[in-house]
């Protein structure tokens, strides 16, 4: 069995759940791209792929994530998932000079696609399942859509992300596994194609699996509110923005939007981007620069 998730933090919690139940034993893989943001036109073709790659390189510039950025990873994963479903073999990408590692399935190969109730996971699901329609019946989906779980304090909550769920609670969640239906393999790719044709800057989840396109400026109001009327360290501005947002997005996307807002004259920054995020101070547009107005240095972590 291969489990597929869409956020890095989901990997650890699902692997812990697998340790509790041998029946869930299998490989855990991640689709790394966040398809809830950025261009999607002709995303499965070379032209669209290159456009999206160039956009992500711009977004991740100066970020701590650029060194690990590789747009081909997800393509390789999907290619190997198809091979796994055909032959029971999944081959990992190998570093230069190394032998590739191989995962083999002795029984019938199946894939479990896990997603939380958020646009990141649902968009990732659409992108992935549209490429696996030849394997109807062998691809299972587990969607934590508006379902209650027990948190660490014993209270009931409705998780947005898989990583919020306790590992032991996944033992109940596994009962949700069901094959993606033939009808879904017909309807969902059409819905995804519509979103790809719109190729908006942002996509949000309105409920169920309904994804709606929004302008690239969708999160700007949250950013401007977090900045307020005082200068603040970039990392703190991003933390405050994310903590107050109802619909979350990635920190790299928010930083890219801050850079766009600076270019539009709606915000100012001081510091050297080339030195990374920690060097940047964000200010309301037109705010005078003085030593008194610079935020105090945050204590070292």
TrEMBL record:
Q: Which residues form the DUF1835 domain?
A: 2-142
Q: Where is the DUF3658 domain?
A: 176-272
Taxonomic superkingdom: Bacteria
Question: This protein is called what?
Answer: DUF1835 domain-containing protein
């Amino acid at each position: 069995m291969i489990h597929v998730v869409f956020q890095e933090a989901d990997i650890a919690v699902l692997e812990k759940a697998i340790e509790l139940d041998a029946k869930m034993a299998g490989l855990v893989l991640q689709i790394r791209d966040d398809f809830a943001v950025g261009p999607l036109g002709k995303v499965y073709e070379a032209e669209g792929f290159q456009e999206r790659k160039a956009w992500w390189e711009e977004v991740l510039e100066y970020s701590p994530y650029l060194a690990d950025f590789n747009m081909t990873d997800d393509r390789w994963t999907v290619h190997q998932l198809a091979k796994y479903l055909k032959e029971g073999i999944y081959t990992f990408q190998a570093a230069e000079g190394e032998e590739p590692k191989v995962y083999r399935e002795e029984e019938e190969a199946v894939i479990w696609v896990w997603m939380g109730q958020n646009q990141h996971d649902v968009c990732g699901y659409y992108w992935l399942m549209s490429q696996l329609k030849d394997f109807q019946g062998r691809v299972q989906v587990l969607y934590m859509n508006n379902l209650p779980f027990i948190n660490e304090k014993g209270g009931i909550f409705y998780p947005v992300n898989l990583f919020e769920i306790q590992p032991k609670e996944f033992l109940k969640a596994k009962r949700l596994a069901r094959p993606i239906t033939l009808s879904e393999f017909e309807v969902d790719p059409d819905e995804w194609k519509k979103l790809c044709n719109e190729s908006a800057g942002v996509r949000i989840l309105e409920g169920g699996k309904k994804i709606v396109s929004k302008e690239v400026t969708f999160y700007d109001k949250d950013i401007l509110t977090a900045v307020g009327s005082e200068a603040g360290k970039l990392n703190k501005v991003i933390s405050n923005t994310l903590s107050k947002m109802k619909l979350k997005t990635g920190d790299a996307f928010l930083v890219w939007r801050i850079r766009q807002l600076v270019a539009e004259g709606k915000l100012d920054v001081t510091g050297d981007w080339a030195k990374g995020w920690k060097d940047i101070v964000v200010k309301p547009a037109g705010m005078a620069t003085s030593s008194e107005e610079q935020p105090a240095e945050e204590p070292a972590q």
